Amino acid sequence: MKRHLISAGDLTKDDALLILDTAEELASVSERSIKKLPTLRGRTVVNLFFEDSTRTRISFEAAAKRLSADVINFSAKGSSVSKGESLKDTALTLEAMGADAVVIRHGSSGAPHRLANWVHGSVVNAGDGTHEHPTQALLDAFSMRRRLGALEGRRITIVGDVLHSRVARSNVLLLGTLGAEVTLVAPPTLLPVSVGTWPCEVSYDLDAVLPKSDVVMMLRVQKERMNAAYFPSEREYSRRYGLDRDRFAKMPDDAIVMHPGPMNRGMEIAAEVADSARSTIVEQVANGVTIRMAVLYLLLGGETA
Ligand code: CP
């Protein structure tokens, strides 16, 4: 595996399977009453969050602590970033405090790549702009594998605001590497211009794709990134692309529903679908800790330098 995890596309099939298999071994730790391993004792993980997060920030913190690493949490709000301090100076300040790994979420696509040129430790991309979110894709693949078995030949449908979704891009790359067949379903306005070069199929007809899906992953409509009208109204979006009870009934009986969170309940997904037994949404959060433990363990090696 490379020193950094910036793009799901950087992972070979062997790398991805190593992370998933390591996470499977580490999963038992999360089920113990004392959820701690001494593996990263003496190592320091910095969580550098320039954008809001609930799941990713907390799960990286929990993952590092379960491996006994020291954790420094940095949030841009309330820091010297508000006084104009640059990403580079912020990163060098944190490195001076001895960071062995920097986990970064940033609003700008490419920020983790830039950071990797400035620090000596490993950089983990926790979501950069509309670009990538590789650990989300890994936890999604882990969640699918736990429910369905091997992903080779599985039909995964990803629905919604692909244009603004770093989750969609990372999932298309990773699932393709793992041998799954991915179909994106979205209104034409919410697909990137370059989608024709992505290793997946594209459809505008959710009702036609649902009966052929082993997994249906709904994406959040990212209103905060929209500076124009991408669809006539929320009601119209929901009518054509929302997963409601009637659409859920069109899925095969053993197919599962996923969502990376946070959800717009009632818009892209009905509450009763999100809360059904075939939804993995809560499992995905728990699996996020396990996958991030595996990533930190494999990047930091568990050995003291
Ligand atoms: N799925 C995800 O990245 O959620 P957060 O924004 O809460 O971290």
TrEMBL record:
Its EC number is 2.1.3.2. Carbamoyl phosphate binds at R55, T56, R105, H133, Q136, G261, P262. One of its GO terms (cellular component) is cytosol. It catalyses: carbamoyl phosphate + L-aspartate = N-carbamoyl-L-aspartate + phosphate + H(+). Pathway: Pyrimidine metabolism; UMP biosynthesis via de novo pathway; (S)-dihydroorotate from bicarbonate: step 2/3. Pfam families: OTCace, OTCace_N. L-aspartate binds at K83, R166, R220. Keywords: Pyrimidine biosynthesis, Transferase. GO terms for molecular function: amino acid binding; aspartate carbamoyltransferase activity. Residues 3-145 form the Aspartate/ornithine carbamoyltransferase carbamoyl-P binding domain. Heterododecamer (2C3:3R2) of six catalytic PyrB chains organized as two trimers (C3), and six regulatory PyrI chains organized as three dimers (R2). Belongs to the aspartate/ornithine carbamoyltransferase superfamily. ATCase family. This is Aspartate carbamoyltransferase. It comes from Nonomuraea longispora.
